[in-house]
Recover the amino acids of this structure.
């Protein structure tokens, strides 16, 4: 009996594959119309969506294919309720963007990449009304500037103030003789 349980688990994982769906798409990866797998060659752009269960949610991989070649890919980590927690986008197999979301699905970190090297980072901060500020960093994690958002009672944007980082004062003295 003890051997039957692992065998059953193996059979279930082999018999129940990851869910894969296909969509007629466009050059920006919109899922325009679901199609059958055998109709993939009938459209110039196809969005392939593969979803598989992981420990505490799902991995979803979206591949935009143009005439048989992958153009762009998005890898999403979702919780059991379907909320995205992480998103990575790739173009021609190279990482372009990384986003990290909080429990409410709000972006709290965004990184931009060029040739798999991080070029910029933005940290987002929220209040009960909504987005309160964003800090922008360069590839060496130097603070470039901060945007502070003024929101109304209903969360509407009333203003944005850009704040440059303070440059430490340099003290010097000049002695003339």
């Amino acid at each position: 009996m003890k051997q039957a349980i692992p065998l059953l688990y193996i059979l279930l994982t082999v018999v129940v594959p990851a869910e894969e769906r296909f969509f007629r798409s466009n050059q920006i990866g919109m899922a325009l119309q679901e199609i059958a797998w055998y109709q993939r060659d009938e459209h110039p752009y196809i969005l392939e969506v593969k979803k598989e269960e992981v420990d505490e949610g799902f991995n979803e991989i979206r591949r935009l294919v143009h005439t048989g070649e992958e153009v762009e890919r998005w890898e999403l980590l979702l919780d059991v309720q379907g909320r995205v927690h992480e998103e990575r986008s790739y173009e021609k197999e190279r990482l372009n963007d990384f986003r990290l979301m909080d429990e409410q699905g709000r972006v709290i970190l965004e990184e931009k990449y060029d040739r798999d090297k991080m070029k910029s980072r933005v940290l987002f901060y929220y209040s009960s009304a909504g987005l309160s500020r964003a800090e922008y960093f360069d590839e060496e994690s130097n603070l470039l500037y901060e945007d502070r958002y003024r929101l109304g009672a209903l969360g509407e944007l009333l203003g944005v103030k850009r704040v440059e980082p303070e440059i430490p004062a340099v003290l010097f003295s000049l002695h003339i003789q």
Remarks:
- The chain has two domains: 18-105, 110-177.
- The two ends are 98 Å apart (CA to CA).
- The helical segments are 4-15.
- The mean pLDDT is 87.
